[in-house]
Amino acid sequence: MSVSVVSPGRGRAETLSATLLRWAEPSVGGPVVEAPYLLTTAVLDTPAPAGSSASGVHTHDDALPVWPHTGTTTLHTRNTVRRLVPGQAAWMPPGTPHASHPDPGSVACYTYVNAASTPSSGSATG
User: Fold this and answer.
1) Between the CA atoms of 18, 44, 72 and 47, what dihedral angle is there, to the nearest 10 degrees?
2) Which 8-state DSSP code applies to residue 96?
3) Could you give the CA distance from residue 32 to residue 35 in angstroms, rounded to a whole number?
4) Taken in order 35, 37, 38, 40, is the CA torsion positive or negative?
5) What's the CA gap between 92 and 59, in Å, rounded?
6) E strands along 18-115, which residues?
7) Residues in contact with 25: Cβ distance below 8 Å, sequence separation at least 6, in sequence order
8) Per-residue pLDDT tens digits for 10-47
């Protein structure tokens, strides 16, 4: 599986191949939300640079709804690839391996929810 992403300002397409999406060896991220808060949102308006932890498969200690504010966002989980549009979101329980990329010209939002404030049951989007 591969996905082409055109990087703004570079004028060339970069391909995220299955070799970049290493499901057996996700990069492990720590908690993003710091006390005393229960959630925080990261807003990205450009695809992550190749080689960063955000461009490959990674996890978070926090739960994570992924949603596009404008445009579309491509979300990879172990068994699915979803293109989200405004009004849609995907819930990622803590520790779920995933890779996510705002498509060119899009603004993607990643709301990190403190794991201690999320229910223990529930499954990832895919």
Assistant:
1) -40
2) -
3) 10
4) negative
5) 9
6) 27-28, 39-44, 58-59, 64-70, 73-77, 81-84, 90-92, 98-102, 107-113
7) 57
8) 343 344 444 457 777 788 877 788 888 899 999 988 76
Q: Decide if 56 contacts 20 (C-beta within 8 A).
A: yes
Question: Which structure tokens are listed for 66?
Answer: 């992924």
Contact, 72 vs 99, CB < 8 A? Answer: no
Pair 103, 72: CB distance under 8 Å:
yes
**Whose CA is closest to 5, among 79, 89, 107, 102?**
102
Tokens 């405004």: give the residue.
Answer: 86
What torsion, rounded to 10 degrees, do the Cα atoms 14, 18, 24, 30 define?
Answer: 20
Query: For the segment 16-26, what is each residue's pLDDT rounded down to a tens digit?
Result: 444 457 777 78
pTM here? 0.71
The label of the residue with tokens 């499901």 reads 23
- Which tokens hold the place of 12? 């060339």
Tokens 């970069």 locate to: 14
d(CA 118, CA 7): 35
